[in-house]
Amino acid sequence: MSPGAMMNGYGRPPAPYGAPQGPQQQQQPPYPPFRPGFQPQGAPSPQQGFRPAPNMMRPGFSPGQRPQQMPPPPGDVRPQGMMPPPGQRPPNGMPFHPQQQPSPLQPQQAPMQQPMQPLQPMQPQQRPPTSPMAMRPPQPMQRPPIQPFQPSPQMNTAQLPQLTSQPSPMQQQRPPLPQQQHLQQPQQQQQQPQQQPQQQQQPMGQFQPPMGQQPPVNIQHQQQLPPQPSPQLQQQPPAQPATPEHQQQQQQEQSQADQQQGHQRRKRMYPKQVFLEDTNAAAQQQLPPTPTAAQPYPQQQQQQQPQQNQFMSPMGGQPNAPVQPIQQQQPQQQPQQQYNQQGVQSLTNQMGQMNLGGAPGAPSMASVSLMGTPPPVTALANPSPVPHLPPNVSITNSPFANCDETYKCCTINAVPATESLLKKSRLPFALVLAPYRSLDPNEEPVPVISDSVISRCRRCRTYINPFVTFVEGGQRWKCNMCFLLNDVPAAFDYDAHTQKQADRWKRPELNYGVVEFVAPTEYMVRPPQAPAFVFVLDVSYSAIQSGMLATAARTLLDTLDRLPNEESRTNVAIITVDSALHFYNFDETLEEPQMLVVADVEDVFLPQPTNLFTNLTQKKDAIKALLEKLPDMFRDTANVNNALGPALQAAYKMLSPSGGKIVCLQSTLPNVGIGALTSREDVKLLGTAKESTLLAPASPFYKSFAVDCSRSQVACDMLIFGGQYADVATLSCLPHYTGGQTYYYPGFNASRSEDALKFAHELSELLSEQIGLEAVIRIRASRGLRMNAFHGNFFIRSTDLLALPNVPRDQNYCVEVVIEDDLKTPTVCFQTALLHTSCTGERRIRVVTLCLPVTNSVSELYANIHPKAMVSYLANKAVERALSSKLDDARDAVVNKLVDLLGVYKTHILGSAQGSTPQLNVPDNLKLLPLLALALIKHDGLRQSSQIPTDMRANAMNLLRTMPLQLLIPYIHANFYSLHNMPPEAGELSEHGVMFPPVLNLTAERIEAHGCYLLENGQHIYLWVGRGVVPQLCMDLFDVTNYEALRGGKYTLPVLETPLNRKVNLLIGKIREMRRGDYYPTLYLVKEDGDPYLKIWFLSHLIEDRTENVMSYQQFLQFIKDRVGSTSF
Asked: What is the 8-class DSSP label of residue 1038?
């Protein structure tokens, strides 16, 4: 049987997701056609032949304000060139001389017989300002006076109406007015030298000349036009037409020259001048010219169709007569667009969408309807939006000038210019950063600058970066934060390795947003200390019986060679604790380590001042011998007590002189000495308003001890094993304030290989990390911005200085930003400086620089929202609210913020009034934000449930506020795959890696009774097996005969030779290694009629369904829509 047949032979294909539903198109009554000259019956008749004055062509003038035009009364057909009747206003651009008006009593004069000279092209400064609202061809500001036309006896006046030119776009529905015919032909002749490549617009069915050729001219008509008395125009010869290729080449050369000259000029300008120049340039670019023809081009209309989504109506449907966006005329031949007949409201909405201060290339604001359709979960794998910076904002053209989002990103990729605009948008403004993240195998390492040439601003201490500006011939540079001029170091352009002059523009700090400087001695309070580890091991009864001690000793034994020890300076100490403390003497005179017992835990002291630490390289054999004997030394213990607090104090005394790291493995609840805890688990409080009291620390000792450790550069990692209540909420205070990490293993039993493998893998990865020691973090921002609040595992030493004795890899931090003053610059910058000591003993400074544009538009703010960073911010705020108040308040805070965002979008961007609407519209970049918000309030850390133990909820909260974005999103919204009918290419290796099956929506509607499914969230992997699964799948995947032979719970998938087993094993292995971090997901086998608790745990991840007291996805959308419609914004 072929693999393809094997994949499709385990059951029917999955049922579709409900009834087929598409986006609901709201049927709206068509807009009334907008026709120039249309006037309802009974309305007063305006003056005939009226044309708008130049002041009515301004950008703020709306077509709805234009007086109506009416056709002339029958019989009032005047020859071309005749002035209007007495008392009427002449057409726009024609001088009105009352003394020149012909009188009916005066005889007609013969026309002047001199030949007409062709009009020269008008200069750019003579062209009047146009507006996208103007609905007729632009008229010149100056026109030579035209003599009143009087037909000669040789001219047949019956031919005059036939000498009309092509009607304007607004006159296609009716014949042009005779009073305007004499204005159209000279205007077309005047624009011919400048618009030579364009085709002459003619009515459909008539002859059109090829591209680049001049259309034929009616010579008879040209000779019959009145003479042009301007002497300047008569003396100048007509301009020679240029070919399209020559004209395009000249424009490109001129554009390049202007760009280079402008770039050099901008470097010498102040930021406010640059901002004003960019704003004016963007305004001129976004004001399109008025079209001069209205021939339909189906192909051009199809190309513009995707842009019509940004002009959707507030009800979700598109207008019946969409507005075609106006494009600027290009030098090459471009089909001109057609203004469809549209209501004034749609045209006004189009102008409202235009932003005069945005950066070029900004994302468009497309609206998406959510009601009645499943969420597009495949979009979670799409790349996140990137900031759209103005051109030439960096001094080099490096694509790495801005830092990658995995190092630092912002909740909004465009910064509001004022605090009032930020309050109006109700958007959270925060940074999400992981400055010390690990590298992927295919990534380049962070550039290291080892020449000790560090240039910083004298005022704000900003490090030189790609967004500074060099002035005065490169001798000084202007800070992009405070705009102070600083001297360039003398060695900045000198290479100390080659002893030659270096190219300044190749320096890493001017080309990369993330760099590392090797810090000189002035950045050191003391010389870099050797890495030191103190292992505090629980040897009480529960630790022995669960196998924790034996597994820990074996893992430490295997990981000694992986500890950071490049310079052979690493020191190691071991403390075992039950009701007493056990130290080990590594004196060189002893053949094996000697145990020293301290039974007095009330007043902790060290049994001897030296030899408790040992060098890892020199005494590795002694350390290995001790680790091999530890399980046997405490095998028969019956001590159920634990003195964790005194053991931590002893470890602190050992590490405080030099700093280091405490790795604590705890299996029993501390109950002896300082820091003793009692079991406070109360099932009656779970799921109630008082549950938050169980999540607060029970003893102040652990927080105060953590603060003392932070001052002495001592960090602490906690590995908690919970056979019973372990009080994770209290013990996690140590890693929280010292920059450490917390790992929780509920129900640990080393006899299960799954538990032992998970613990051994995570402990080994934790110890082998290339961490940073004695670190501080400071975040600087442009003038007018200030860091306000901080979230993460650290201790805030001052208002903006974060102290981290230990900087682990792949730990996340969130920082809230406030706007103190209005931003006057086109961009702002955020720079994170991480000063740390590497494991190799070098003092280094990692600098991460992020540059974002500034905007004055609410719509551009919403188009630049970073949804994943927004979710990370909401998770941190929700955890903070849950610990300080109640879980209900935390969930309400998430929902309220989502209602604010969608309400502002509906009111200020879509322009909908307050009230209920049949659809819930969101920006395209936020189409998954309601789903992620629902997943967050349904998460184990925040979900309202009486089935979640306190330790498990506290551990989930720790993960929510420390996980980087790559781990956080799948942890909140799990990935769901179907295994029994996956495509043949799924589970196979390709040039892009392992191919995964299509992602399914998290709903039970996707589950079939005969199916097998895989669900993973980075912490756990579940294999769901339906009770109707065929025996062949059980044999091929699990090596059992039927469904009844399967065993649920923690599971290890066997390795078989069948294609299905090989594919699933490859998928599971890839899931365990494809993300950053030390976590090793455990595999669970969930049977449909198996363990009820395990089944409920699996179904709680199906967030689109209703679970307990929490709404389903569609109910949640309806709830949000009602809240948005009933609240004013």
From this structure: I
Say how many C-beta atoms besides its own lie within 10 A of residue 338's C-beta: 17
Residue 454 in contact with residue 430, Cβ under 8 Å?
no
Q: List the end-to-end C-alpha distance of the chain, in Å, as a whole number.
A: 63
Give the separation between CA 71 and CA 826, rounded to whole angstroms. 50
Question: Element (H or E) spanning 920, and its range?
Answer: none
List the structure tokens of 766.
Answer: 């934790």
Each residue's pLDDT tens digit, 720-738: 998 889 999 999 999 999 9
d(CA 429, CA 414): 10
* Lowest model confidence (mean pLDDT) among 115-119, 394-398, 477-481, 897-901: 115-119
**Burial class of residue 752, CB neighbours in 10 A (0-12, 13-18, 19+):** middle
Q: To the nearest 10°, the Cα dihedral for 775, 776, 781, 783?
A: -150
- CA–CA separation, 127 and 141 (whole Å): 6
pLDDT of residue 28 exceeding 70? no
- Main-chain dihedrals φ then ψ at residue 1119, nearest 5 degrees: -65, -45
Beta strands in 389-471 (DSSP E): 408-410, 415-416, 430-433, 448-449, 469-471
- Are the C-beta atoms of 517 and 847 separated by less than 8 Å? yes
Name the strand (E) or helix (H) holding 476.
strand 476-478
Mean pLDDT of 514-531: 91
| Tens-digit pLDDT profile for residues 889-908 | 999 999 999 999 999 999 99
> If residue 367 lies in a helix (H) or strand (E), which one and from where to where?
strand 367-369
At 927, is the secondary structure helix, strand, or coil? coil
Q: Which two tokens stand for residue 728?
A: 């994770």
Find out whether 471 and 539 touch, Cβ atoms under 8 Å: no
Nearest to 693 by CA among 875, 881, 883: 883
